[in-house]
Design goal:
The protein is an alpha/beta fold. It is built from seven helices and 13 strands. The protein has a seven-stranded mixed beta sheet with strand order 9-8-7-10-11-13-12. The chain starts with 5 loop residues before the first strand and ends with a strand.
């Protein structure tokens, strides 16, 4: 049997089949996959791409225990969440590791750190763990619009024993400048593939020297242009690198820059 495209998240495997694959064949391959992978309890089928502002995936039950919630371990962090109600990609594991290590080195004691589009809080938790290794304290805010993702983010903060470090705020990132009075030292924007950059809103919560990590999509030139357009000479040199893809010839770019 050819290898089926898959994502393994905790004890759940999400399989992707070619179009027009007959249902009995899917069921057979799912049960066979389950039999050959003793660490997997549930098989789901990915039936559509992530969609909408909340990036909610669409999956369908195929075999094993009928459930959608799991606990996933990554980089010494634990995350509980429902696959059908929240966005999470295990393929970004290394990206989260790289960024969290970089942010932890950059942060000073008691730095104020904001993560927008934080989902179930993988970036806030990974950063907090790295800071702990370096005996640094910080005030971290995890911001997300999806109420279910916020619910799990709060659970995950407790699960990783980081209640004194991370605060979860469930709201639209565009409303944060009025809601939060603080200016942040470091701001992360692992944003979804949306037309709006949110940079104008984020700049309102920055100060001279604030470092911003921004996710953009498309070509390198398109990402650089949208950053320059919405920051209007308020930032310094932009460092940019490819950080994976989200489809054929559609790339994610990680851009880092400081506010002047």
């Amino acid at each position: 049997m050819k290898k089926i495209p898959q994502d393994i998240i905790g004890d759940i495997a999400i399989l992707k089949f070619k179009r027009n694959t007959f249902w009995p064949i899917k069921k057979f391959k799912a049960w066979r996959f389950l039999k050959n992978h003793k660490n997997i309890n549930t098989i789901l089928e990915k039936i559509d791409k992530f969609s909408g502002e909340l990036r909610i995936p669409k999956t369908k039950y195929l075999a094993g225990e009928k459930k959608y919630e799991t606990i996933y371990k990554e980089n010494n962090c634990l995350f509980r969440f429902n696959i059908n109600e929240t966005y999470f990609s295990p393929r970004l594991s290394n990206e989260r590791k790289v960024i969290s290590e970089e942010v932890a080195k950059l942060a000073k004691n008691n730095s104020k750190i904001l993560i927008c589009f934080a989902g179930i809080a993988p970036y806030p938790i990974a950063i907090a763990k790295q800071l702990k290794k370096q005996n640094k304290k910080a005030n971290i805010i995890s911001n997300e619009l999806n109420t279910m993702a916020c619910k799990y983010a709060k659970e995950n903060v407790k699960l990783n024993k980081l209640n004194n470090t991370i605060e979860v705020i469930c709201d639209d990132a565009r409303k944060l400048p009025k809601k939060l009075k603080n200016k942040f030292d470091i701001i992360l924007m692992p944003r979804p593939n949306l037309k709006k950059t949110f940079l104008k809103d984020i700049l309102k919560m920055s100060k001279k020297g604030t470092t911003i990590y921004y996710h953009g999509f498309g070509t390198k030139e398109e990402v650089l242009n949208e950053i320059k357009r919405d920051t209007k000479e308020k930032i310094g040199k932009i460092k940019i690198r490819k950080a994976g893809d989200i489809g054929p010839y559609i790339f994610r770019w990680q851009a880092t820059f400081k506010v002047k």
